[in-house]
């Protein structure tokens, strides 16, 4: 599929080289104090949507421990693998590790420091591992983040990219948690980081209602993928609801969920026989995936959808 598109293999190769490069240039960000949040990461110039802000390999990466039924995994089970990973770091890298933010609950004053630092800063590194990225770890959370946060399986790098245009001087934010929850539920998830989020979404009951509606609609419409109705009118209604879903996600500024909403609109438009509309939605979905990585599995699946709809789109 890739070989057939002139120039595409080179573009993908170029991006892989960029993702593997140790720094991002030209300089896009600086680290400085963010009032009430400790350090934060700020744009030093206007960043266009899609700009790769930080590309980073993990300093350490350890396996996720076995799941405990009803509890997920227990962070305490990571102590020995963390200590082993820490010991093989150079003194400079150890210093980098220990310099990261360390949130601990009052009851944890004697807790192993590697563990509490890790819990305060870690991101996943694939499906079965979790890691520390010292540069990315300086990025603070928002429930309406301006940046996307992507693990590239192909290059073993985490990529932070502008999910919308970001003004010079604006703080770069990502989300630490799933965002289609009410403020109360989000705050509960953020407890492990020791702060109460006061972003605009956390101040708005309208936002809570909309996020709950978006979640319900997403779940309901995705369930329809496997069972298109025999009635045209039902399929048409579902396609109309999908467009409403996209509008709500856009109004809420939830860039993390745009690709998913566009995908729902593409599939349900296809099921209602609106192939041109389906193609347009699928192209929008591809554009979002490609902000993170041109030839990610998600992007390639969407290229296949576009082709099945009779479109031609470069992966
Ligand atoms: C991964 S670190 C982020 C960088 C951190 N501010 C620092 O100084 O290194 C996570 C910590 O940053 C702070 N933080 C992140 N987002 C915040 C927010 N929206 N409001 C207040 N504090 C926040 C909390 O202390 C949290 O435990």
UniProtKB/TrEMBL annotation:
Domain SET: start-end pairs: 27-177
Domain of life: Eukaryota
Membrane-spanning segments: none
InterPro entries: SET_dom (IPR001214), SET_dom_sf (IPR046341), SET_domain_protein (IPR053185)
Coiled coil segments of this chain: none
Signal peptide positions on this chain: none
Gene3D superfamilies on file: SET domain
Protein name: SET domain-containing protein
């Amino acid at each position: 599929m890739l070989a057939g598109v002139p120039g595409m293999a080179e573009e993908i190769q170029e991006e892989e080289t960029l993702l593997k490069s140790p720094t991002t240039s030209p300089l896009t960000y600086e680290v400085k104090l963010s009032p009430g949040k400790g350090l934060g990461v700020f744009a030093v110039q206007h960043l266009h949507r899609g700009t790769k802000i930080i590309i980073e390999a993990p300093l350490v990466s350890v396996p996720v421990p076995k799941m405990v039924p009803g509890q997920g995994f227990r962070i305490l089970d990571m102590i020995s693998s963390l200590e082993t990973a820490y010991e093989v770091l150079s003194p400079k890298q150890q210093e980098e590790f220990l310099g990261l933010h360390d949130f601990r609950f009052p009851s944890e004053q004697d807790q192993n420091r590697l563990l509490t630092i890790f819990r305060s800063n870690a991101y996943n590194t694939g499906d079965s591992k979790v890691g520390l990225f010292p540069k990315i770890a300086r990025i603070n959370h928002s429930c309406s983040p301006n940046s996307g946060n992507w693990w590239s399986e192909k290059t073993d790098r985490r990529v932070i990219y502008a999910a919308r245009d970001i003004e010079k001087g604006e703080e770069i934010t990502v989300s630490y948690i799933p965002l289609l929850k009410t403020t109360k539920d989000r705050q509960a998830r953020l407890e492990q980081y020791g702060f109460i989020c006061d972003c605009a979404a956390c101040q708005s009951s309208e936002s809570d209602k909309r996020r709950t509606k978006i979640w319900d609609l997403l779940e309901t419409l995705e369930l329809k993928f496997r069972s298109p109705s025999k009635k045209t009118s039902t399929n048409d209604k579902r396609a109309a609801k999908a467009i409403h879903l996209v509008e709500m996600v856009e109004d809420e500024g939830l860039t993390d969920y745009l690709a998913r909403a566009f995908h729902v609109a593409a599939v349900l438009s296809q099921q209602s026989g609106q192939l041109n509309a389906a193609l347009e939605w699928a192209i929008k979905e591809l554009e979002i995936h490609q902000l993170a990585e041109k030839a990610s599995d998600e992007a390639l699946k969407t290229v296949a959808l576009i082709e099945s709809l009779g479109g031609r789109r470069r992966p």
